[in-house]
Amino acid sequence: MTASDTLSAQRTGVPVLAPGHVWLAGAGPGDPGLLTLDALAGLQQADVVVHDALVDQGVLALAGKQARLEFAGKRGGKPSATQVDISQRLVALARAGQRVLRLKGGDPFVFGRGGEEAMTLAAAGIPFRVIPGVTAGLAALAAASIPATLRGVNRAVIFAAGHGAEENFDWAPLARAGQPIVLYMVMHNLERIAADLMAGGLAPRTPAAIIAAAATPKERVLVTTLEKLFADAQEQKFEPPAIVAIGEIVDFRSRLRGKNVTAGKPRKEHK
Ligand SMILES: C[S@@+](CC[C@H](N)C(=O)[O-])C[C@H]1O[C@@H](n2cnc3c(N)ncnc32)[C@H](O)[C@@H]1O
Description:
This protein is α/β, with parallel strands linked by helices. The protein folds into two domains: about 5-135, Tetrapyrrole methylase, N-terminal domain (Cobalt-precorrin-4 Transmethylase, domain 1, 3-Layer(aba) Sandwich), CATH 3.40.1010.10; about 135-255, 2-Layer Sandwich (Methyltransferase, Cobalt-precorrin-4 Transmethylase, Domain 2). About 30% of the residues lie in helices and about 15% in strands. The chain is built from ten helices and ten strands. Strand 8 (about 205-210) and strand 9 (about 220-225) form a beta hairpin. The mean pLDDT is about 90. S-adenosylmethionine (SAM) binds near residues 54, 105 and 135.
């Protein structure tokens, strides 16, 4: 019996991905070990897996032999499918009677435009199910031995995107909240956002970390302060995909580092 069979036996069986249905599932940050059992069940049953660029090859390798893989993200500067194209493609595949797994990096409803896809499916009357995934913000903190919350230190965590539709976003209220901030998609605007957070009241010496390619063989961690964040990232050539964590919680890494056996564990490369 496989581990997956053993775990499935603990519940009422494996959920069925029916023809004409779409499962909108999170693939987690990279490591296939962070996939949910239901996402794995979807991979094994799907006729077509529509996936983003950030879905790890090791995860895609778990698709059943019958599954066709369709790429629906940005790659190598080539024009990417628009969000409307992707949503309409899901509708068309479902209407053609396919079992469709829409697989997105991390969690489908966290900065992944999964909400828009779900709304299109709902409007088109396509039966769908949302399967959560381990979002990169939490996976990156765990990989870097940074607790997301600590009693007596913080009672909230702010997840924010460094890039979005509203470029005039006001960072000052987030700076004033006095709670850790976890930033997605921030590397291209890092200098400006770090400056805005300091202008909004965050101390320049606030601890900060960058975790790039978390839960993949390319994982790297940089620990610094808010005032040095951009310069250090440039100097050490940190690139997307990366999560930036800002706040006192980052300091606790030094106490846990080297003792957290899951952080930086060796992983097999997937060909
Ligand atoms: C379009 S958002 C998708 C977020 C995803 N839905 C989630 O819940 O993690 C892409 C951003 O997620 C972050 N990200 C995704 N995978 C990552 C990883 N393995 N390590 C670090 N950051 C990652 C980066 O900030 C990247 O720019």
